[in-house]
Amino acid sequence: PTPVVVAIDGPSGTGKSSTSKGVAARLGMAYLDTGAQYRAITWWMLRQGIDPADTAAVAAAAEKPEIVSGTDPLAPTITVDGTDVSAPIRGAEVTGAVSAVSAVPEIRARITGLQRSIAEGAAASGPGIVVEGRDIGTTVLPDADLKIFLTAAPEVRAARRSGELGGPQDAARLAATRADLVRRDTADSSRTASPLARAGDAVELDTGDLTLEQVVERVVAMIEERR
Ligand code: C5P
């Protein structure tokens, strides 16, 4: 089949990762989690003792760590200087710092370069790639063959994210998760460098009333129309 480059953007908790992996696995495509790359460089900054709020220090170190993303949707991996960081990048420490680090232009330039070279490699061979993030359709891959922007009400997103994190699902936990999501969305949408935004030519899909399977099904159908 013709290689297809698909950009899937949207705020946290809309089902971007599950949808992107599901679609890529179904169609034998590669998969790139760009949030994991920002989390990985944030993890490295914290390990170095660099304060995520110290923009100059973050910018000065932007080129230092080597970040390698695996693109198998069934077993995505990410390493920093050879260390597998798949687990620690999901922790509260990295989650709390990632929006500050990813707002730094030098960080975005570095990570965007990695993303474009991975997408070019995948588009040159095989059935293509699904790239998920916040600015893929607007900035990283403006010529993507298909752009999807996922949305869902904050309550729905908080319940999903809270379920993923495990532990007790009481009202206080849910409220805290919702507050954290809203804080991160606000930071990601209001930053100057390549904010979270829907591309003009993106298809918007509200996932609130759909199952994961239904969302995957719709995206697969849109890709098949473009082949
Ligand atoms: O998708 P995930 O929650 O793992 O993304 C973590 C953070 O990485 C986001 O909150 C955002 O600050 C940043 N990010 C970004 N641009 C992307 C993907 C993620 O700025 N393309």
From TrEMBL:
Which enzyme class?
A: transferase
* Location(s) in or outside the cell: Cytoplasm
Reading the lineage from the top rank, the first entry is Bacteria
Instruction: Describe the location of the Cytidylate kinase domain by residue ranges.
Output: 6-224
Entry-linked Pfam families: Cytidylate_kin
Tell me the residue numbers annotated for binding ATP: 10-18
**Range of residues in the leader sequence:** none
The record's listing under SUPFAM superfamilies reads: P-loop containing nucleoside triphosphate hydrolases
Kindly report the protein's main subcellular placement as a broad class: cytoplasm
Q: Name one GO molecular function term.
A: ATP binding
What are the record's GO terms for cellular component?
cytoplasm
CDD domains, alphabetized:
CMPK
GO biological process annotations for this chain's record? pyrimidine nucleotide metabolic process
Keywords assigned: ATP-binding, Cytoplasm, Kinase, Nucleotide-binding, Transferase
Its Enzyme Commission number(s) read 2.7.4.25
- Catalytic activity of the protein: CMP + ATP = CDP + ADP; dCMP + ATP = dCDP + ADP
Q: What NCBIfam families has UniProt attached to this entry?
A: cmk
Q: Record's family?
A: Belongs to the cytidylate kinase family. Type 1 subfamily.
Q: How is this protein named in the record?
A: Cytidylate kinase
Q: Which organism is it from?
A: Streptomyces calidiresistens
Q: Which gene encodes it?
A: cmk
